[in-house]
Specification:
TIM Barrel, alpha/beta, glucan endo-1,3-beta-D-glucosidase activity
Length: about 575
């Protein structure tokens, strides 16, 4: 290589080192890009709700990292916990923060209390002015108050008005204030054209609420569940209609008054709300209709077999996957084509501590430890959920399985199961961390992949579980030259405080997209890494912890630069 080429590579290396010295400032643009991708400019988006009745809930900082890894840019919180908001501020997400029902009386009876609440819970996390978006996307005052706490209805609207006034006084009138209502306030919703609001609430509460929402450009928030509508229809609503699955034209619901065809229950429920609002002559700030924001919708993945037969993983997968596609395709409803409402899926994690029917604890997309409850199929849905599960799954040891049972299953996999367990032997790349679950996870996944991910191949007497998160921890060999430089700068990571992860930490699971092929070069085996768009985010690491933002940026920069740097073996000499 000539001196000119070598000079270019030296310049590239110096530029790389300069960028690394500024790594903390590089984190902000990534968050901004993520937020922009969530449809913050008026496009419909899909968010998730986050409940906290979860055993061993992730810490706020880990939760923020998890959201970033999954490319989730919109969340709904049921309170305004400062620790959670502080952590989410760096995640790139925007949050609807909630006012719990038990705080309504104080806020509704005292404007000063509302102003203090805004100063303490909103101002630290809002943009610098009303035109600069911050973490807080909206405020949800109470939750389903007409049915959950009807005694608080007299103070609900005053609380909303006081909070809106406090935000306006702080130059934050761009943050809307509303209250999530249950769909049960809409009566006679099928067919949609004859729907109307509960008469006992319409004039006394809903009409004044709609007028306030129209004057402040705030949405009507609704919790909308086709699951419950189907369950309560006594067989009138077909399951496929509730799951967004296509039906023959003869089975589609047709509104006899408008002759509009409804291919799914979700759109029919939305149009029922539109009709009920129109019947009260409530209009938006520009004279148009008050927009609707679906603050909860979803499907349970498990329930009582007799009382809740449709609460299954397959149905939950079908509903939420099809919902995501439906929203991102932006079709709108038959009554309002093109005017697609944004939605929040209920919920991110299974809240295993919730009382009530079995299904109450099984609405989540993920278990509390971050592994998926079921496999969503969301390819092409705008990047929502980085762990696109259409064709990539792994088998690992279940967190709550008995260790002796895990050991026995691993012994079977590496013995009669004929799994290649060389990588977890002493001195090999997957030996560390040296514990039963880590070794078993590698053995389980090796068997699972060798069987073509066939049904039952991840069972292992109940101690195996399927996940869509790549458990690998890997640094490509072509980056190893950089270890000398990294060591000179004493690069620190969360899980290895004083050195770069090397040797035993370079473990690639058999199903990982990081492992594309193995070739021979100069008589030695060289693993070539290949990173997909989904892997490019800060992927959640089950075995060794989460990847830090700095480590992700470092790998990204290296993957761009080392291709050129390593083309000349004499460069480093």
């Amino acid at each position: 290589m000539g001196s000119r080429s070598r000079g270019r590579h030296l310049l590239l290396l110096l530029l790389l080192l300069h960028l690394l010295s500024l790594h903390s400032s590089l984190l902000v643009p990534w968050a901004a890009v993520s937020a922009a991708g969530g449809g913050g400019s008026g496009d419909p988006y899909v968010g998730v709700t986050i409940g906290t009745a979860v055993t061993n809930l992730l810490s706020p900082s880990d939760l923020a990292e998890f959201l970033r890894a999954q490319r989730i840019t919109h969340v709904r919180l049921y309170d305004a916990d400062p620790r959670m908001l502080s952590a989410l501020a760096s995640s790139g997400a925007r949050a609807i923060v909630g006012v719990p029902n038990d705080e309504l009386l104080a806020l509704g009876s005292s404007p000063a209390t509302a102003s203090a609440w805004v100063a303490r819970r909103v101002l630290p996390y809002a943009g610098s002015n009303s035109s600069t978006p911050g973490l807080i996307a909206a405020i949800a005052v109470g939750d389903e108050v007409p049915t959950a706490l009807p005694s608080a209805l007299p103070v609900l609207l005053p609380a909303i008005q006081s909070l809106a006034a406090a935000l306006a006084a702080a130059n934050l009138s761009s943050i809307p204030v509303s209250t999530p209502l249950p769909f049960s306030v809409v009566l006679d919703p099928f067919p949609p054209s004859q729907a109307f609001f509960n008469q006992s609430l319409a004039k006394s509460f809903i009409l004044p609420l709609l007028s306030h929402l129209a004057n402040t450009s705030a949405p009507l928030m609704l919790n909308l569940y086709p699951y419950y509508s189907m369950m309560q229809s006594n067989g009138v609503i077909p399951l496929d209609n509730a799951l967004f699955k296509p039906l023959p034209p003869s089975l589609e619901m047709v509104d006899p008054n408008t002759l509009l065809h409804y291919t799914n229950v979700f759109d029919a429920m939305l149009d029922a709300v539109h009709v009920a609002v129109k019947n009260l002559n409530a209009t938006g700030g520009g004279g148009g209709p008050v927009p609707v924001l679906v603050t909860e919708t979803g499907w349970p993945s498990y329930g009582d077999r007799r009382a809740e037969p449709y609460a299954t993983r397959d149905n939950a997968d079908a509903y939420n996957s099809n919902l995501i596609k439906h929203v991102t395709d932006k079709p709108g409803t038959p009554m309002r084509p093109g005017a697609q409402a944004s939605v929040y899926i209920y919920e991110l994690f299974n809240e295993d501590l919730r009382p009530g029917p079995v299904s109450e604890a099984n609405w989540g997309l993920f278990h509390g430890n971050g592994t998926p409850v079921y496999l969503l199929h969301v390819s092409g849905a705008g990047g929502f959920l980085a762990n696109d599960t259409t064709d990539r799954t792994f088998c690992i040891a279940s967190d709550d399985a008995d260790e002796k049972a895990v050991q026995a299953a691993m012994d079977w996999a590496c013995g009669p199961g004929r799994t290649d367990c060389t990588a977890i032997q002493p001195g090999q790349g997957c030996y560390e961390p040296n514990d039963v679950r880590s070794h078993a996870s590698f053995a389980f996944d090796s068997y699972y992949q060798s069987q073509g991910k066939a049904a039952g191949s991840c069972y292992f007497q109940g101690v195996g579980m399927v996940t869509t998160t790549d458990p690998s921890e890997y640094i490509p060999p072509q980056h190893c030259h950089f270890l000398l430089i990294a060591d000179a700068f004493r690069v620190k990571t969360k899980y290895n405080e004083n050195k770069w992860p090397t040797g035993h930490d370079s473990c690639i699971f058999p199903g990982s997209k990081l492992l594309s092929n193995v070739t021979k070069s100069d008589g030695a085996n060289t693993t070539t890494a290949q990173t997909s768009d989904a892997e490019g985010s800060a992927i959640w690491r089950l075995r060794t912890g989460r990847e830090t933002g700095f480590l992700f940026i470092l790998r990204w920069l290296l993957s761009l630069s080392m291709v050129l740097i390593t083309t000349n073996s004499n460069f480093w000499t």
